[in-house]
Specification:
This protein is of the alpha+beta class and 385 residues long. The protein contains ten helices and ten strands.
Length: 385
């Protein structure tokens, strides 16, 4: 999830457990612990595939973060003993607060489609792909808002809400707990809506007489209203299904024809490119598509260059993948592929066609949420009767 969601989650967790004793500091400490796992973005690797697949690794491990929480709480308690400053709460409560503020970060991340290595360093040795529940978009304001309100009240009021003399909202600590329950209920709702969207996608594919071997469903927008399913049929062709939970009909579908030669390209790629491809396949659960991208001829050669590109199919807007990498290139028809250190794939604009930004695609997606008639059949979308 986005950094703000992780900050307010960590703050609300520590505010719930220690707000009564630490006041405003509980929310500040929790916010810092909540964002700590994402500091692994400061570690840079020699290529973008490694940057992508090593993110949410060691710093998002429940094993590592639990150890950090336990050791951190022990060190803090020892420091207070050394300064002869007894803690106003038990060491067990401090340990629980620190551990939960840290470990809820990767647990929340695992609800997105990206992939989180909750069991690092055992993840790869156990042949487990990163956890990807894929019921939440990486940004969802409806999840974040209740926790943000809890953080702001905790920072402003400290521990007590004077407006409430008794009852459920008598203090900030209890208010933070209720906001945590509300946001957690939203997570449960996302699971139910994903199950519904996946069921609808299966009905669409069955009605279109498409026999699939596997599929994966995920949110298509920063909301749990619009869903996208990627499927593979028994001829290794890739299909995309898209629909809103507000639709009165089954979702639309289309073939991702740009990946029709994906299996052939995967088999024929240079040997030096295979480790990068295998790692991305593992990280995405084999939800990758391989295609050839043409580059225009340059002043140094009369032949157009070709790039062997791999896309992460789980995160796409229109035909553009958010994570797209060049593994090899060649110049001239019939020339062999030459392996390169992976780079981010450039977006090639077709002459005469307007370039559509990702923001514009998101805007179009929100229009589609509330209007099932908005189906661009010119890009291959079909509606089952």
């Amino acid at each position: 999830m986005d950094s703000l969601s992780q900050i307010v989650l960590g703050a609300s967790v520590q505010g719930t457990l220690l707000g009564k004793y630490q006041g405003r500091k509980a929310y500040l400490y929790g916010a810092m612990l909540g964002t700590l796992p994402d500091l692994d973005v400061l570690v840079h690797y020699p290529d973008p595939i490694s940057d992508m697949t090593y993110h949410r690794g060691f710093s998002h491990s429940l094993i590592v973060l639990t150890a950090v929480g336990i050791i951190g709480a022990w060190l803090i308690s020892r420091y207070h003993q050394w300064r002869n400053m007894p803690l106003p709460y038990s060491k067990a409560r401090l340990t629980l607060a620190m551990t939960l503020a840290l470990t809820t970060h990767p647990i929340l991340d695992s609800f997105t489609v990206y992939g989180t290595q909750l069991l690092w360093p055992l993840q790869e040795s156990l042949s487990l792909t990163p956890f990807s529940i894929a019921s939440m978009f990486i940004i969802d304001p409806l999840y974040t808002l209740p926790l943000l309100v809890a953080l702001l009240l905790g920072l402003i009021k400290g521990s007590r809400l004077i407006a409430f003399k008794a009852g459920l909202l008598v203090n900030c600590q209890r208010f933070a707990l209720w906001m945590l329950l509300l946001s957690s209920s939203y997570l449960l709702l996302s699971l139910g809506l994903k199950y519904h969207a996946q069921s609808q996608a299966k009905q669409t594919l069955a009605a279109a007489n498409i026999h699939t071997t596997r599929l994966k469903t995920m949110p298509a927008l920063p909301t749990v209203l619009m869903w996208r399913t990627v499927a593979e049929d028994d001829q290794d062709r890739l299909i995309e299904v898209r629909g809103s939970v507000l639709d009165s009909r089954l979702p639309e579908y289309r073939y991702l024809t740009q990946y029709d030669n994906s299996q052939t390209l995967r088999v024929n790629m240079p040997a030096q490119s295979r480790p990068y491809a295998h790692r991305l396949d593992w990280f995405s659960g084999d939800w990758t598509g391989y295609r050839v991208q043409m580059l225009p001829a340059t002043s140094t050669t009369s032949d157009a260059a070709e790039q062997l590109v791999v896309d992460d199919l789980r995160m796409m807007a229109g035909d553009t993948a958010f994570f797209s990498f060049v593994l090899a290139n060649k110049i001239g028809q019939g020339a062999p592929w030459q392996s390169i250190t992976p780079i981010e794939a450039p977006v090639i604009k077709t002459d005469g066609e307007p370039e559509v930004s990702r923001i514009e695609l998101v805007k179009q997606g929100f229009v589609r949420v509330f209007d099932e008639s908005v189906v661009d059949r010119g890009t291959g979308w079909k509606v089952v009767e």
